[in-house]
Amino acid sequence: MIIIARIRPYAVILLSAITVTACASSKRPVLYPNSHLQAVGQAQAQRDIDYCMQLASTSGVSRHKDGEIAKKTVTGSAMGAAGAGTAALILGHDADHVLAGAAGGAAAGMVKGGIDSTDMNPTFQRFVAHCLHDKGYDVIGWE
Asked: Looking at CB atoms within 10 Å, which of 60, 76, 97, 116 has the fewest?
């Protein structure tokens, strides 16, 4: 119970960090100003980008790297518990230190997973670039 009381203030910070990370804006393709783009104009190009991004999503391609938060939370928790457990054995501390290490590792893993989960899925980017290429555009990057 003492551990939970000590961890609670950090939970607010952790949730804030995850919220900010999750709300990060998505990247969009950058188009080279070839003759097709010049012919159709920016407004039509943006509609075509939206269409290709929607097509990728409805085809089952995930926009972001899903699953990173859970995986890294578990990994961080295990690493924190192992480190704290080793220190507790060496220094003669009780199980509270192991639990604190696990909680700290889990928090670090959750933040790292949250950050990584906002990275664009390379397959999604290739799908959209291919769709746009078929429409006559030349994708030179993502911003």
From this structure: 60
